[in-house]
Amino acid sequence: MTSPYLPPAGVQTELVEFSSSGRSVQGAIFKPNAHASRLDTAVILVHGVEQFWYVGPTMFLATSLAGRGFTTFGYNGTHSGPTFRWSKFETAVQEVCD
Questions:
Q1: Is the distance from CB of 25 to CB of 18 less than 8 angstroms?
Q2: For 41, phi and psi rounded to 5 degrees?
Q3: Distance between CA 93 and CA 21 in Å, rounded?
Q4: Rounded CA gap, 80 and 85, in Å?
Q5: For a FRET experiment, which of 5, 43, 49, 57 has its CA 20 to 30 Å from that of 66?
Q6: Cα(27)–Cα(42) distance, rounded to whole angstroms?
Q7: Contact 83, 10 (CB under 8 A)
């Protein structure tokens, strides 16, 4: 069982869903609240195979960076889930470009 993790105070969370190559892709955008200073750089985080954006490094790193001024995006690629066994970096790049 996974313990819940909440973003630090001052971080806004927006759940997103988009289509990539005909498949539904889910994730979250984390950003500093409107009163905090924001950096011009955004960070996209893609987890490894057999994981999800809401657990592990994708979640705690994305929210921690957002707490420091970065807008971040963590998502479940079409390569997500416990039954998926391989993935290519190029596939992740194409999903975001779609």
A1: yes
A2: -100, 135
A3: 12
A4: 9
A5: 49
A6: 15
A7: no
23-68 tens-digit pLDDT: 778 888 999 988 777 888 999 887 766 667 777 777 888 889 999 9
How far is residue 2 from each of residues 52, 64, 76, measured CA to CA in Å?
Answer: 11, 19, 17
How does strand 71-76 pair with strand 42-46? parallel
* Cβ–Cβ under 8 Å, residues 54 and 4: no
What's the rounded Cα separation, in Å, for the pair 50 and 1?
Answer: 15
Cα(10)–Cα(93) distance, rounded to whole angstroms? Answer: 29
- Burial code of 6-30, b = ≥16 C-beta within 10 A, e = fewer? ebeeebeeeeeeeebeeeebebbbb
0.85 exceeded by pTM:
no
- Of 92, 39, 94, whose CA–CA distance to 67 is shortest? 39
